[in-house]
Amino acid sequence: MTVFSRIIAGEIPCAKVFEDDHVFAFMDAGQVNPGHVIVALKRPAETILDMTDEEAGALFRAARRIAVAVQAAFKPEGLTILQANRPAGWQTVPHVHLHVLPRHADDGVTLGWPRKEPDIEVLRQLAGQIEVE
Fold first, then answer.
1. pTM value?
2. Active-site residue list
3. Were 62 and a residue from 23, 99, 108, 118 both cysteine, which residue would form a disulfide, CB within 3.0 to 4.6 Å?
4. Is residue 118 part of a domain?
5. Is residue 13 part of a domain?
6. Which residue ranges does the UniProt annotation give for the motif Histidine triad motif (predicted)?
7. In a domain, 122, yes or no
8. What is the pLDDT at residue 105?
9. Please, are residues 37 and 29 in contact by the beta-carbon 8 Å criterion?
10. % of the chain beyond a pLDDT of 90
11. CATH number of the domain that 9 lies in?
């Protein structure tokens, strides 16, 4: 059982922001900036790969609604919506969730990666390997 499952079950106290049939949202205990919200799937799916289309839609719809509310309440200069999968993808809690993170130009938050910029033929070859169902 993950820490998020325990929060959703009421075993660990939280500052709840939103709840519906699929989603439970609460303030991140490690506030990067005021208004930082975790939007978690109620069912304990580990990653986005383990969700149904219905659950994925519900999660992102809730994140959008929460982002609108965070924008109204905290007036950040920007918003980052972050979703990570598995440790190599920066996931720290194995329970699918999104971060709604209010941002300011000088907040010290970074997210970067080296750009590799292959040519268009390589991009087309890579695209050809992806079969969307």
1. 0.92
2. 97
3. 23
4. no
5. yes
6. 95-99
7. no
8. 95
9. no
10. 94
11. 3.30.428.10
Asked if 69 contacts 25 with a C-beta cutoff of 8 angstroms, the reply is: no
pLDDT digits (tens, 9 = 90+) for 1-50: 899 999 999 999 999 999 999 999 999 999 999 999 999 999 999 999 99
Domain membership of residue 59 as a residue range:
3-107
Contact (CB, 8 A) for 77 and 105: yes
For residue 15, the one-letter residue type is A
Q: Are 102 and 35 in contact (CB under 8 A)?
A: yes
Contacts of 109 (CB under 8 A, 6+ apart): 32, 33, 80, 101, 103
pLDDT of the residue at 112: 84
In this structure, is residue 53 part of a structural domain? yes
Q: Measure the CA–CA gap between 12 and 123, rounded to whole angstroms.
A: 46
Q: How many CA atoms lie within 13 A of 64 on its CB side?
A: 6
Which two three-digit tokens encode residue 65?
A: 């609604």
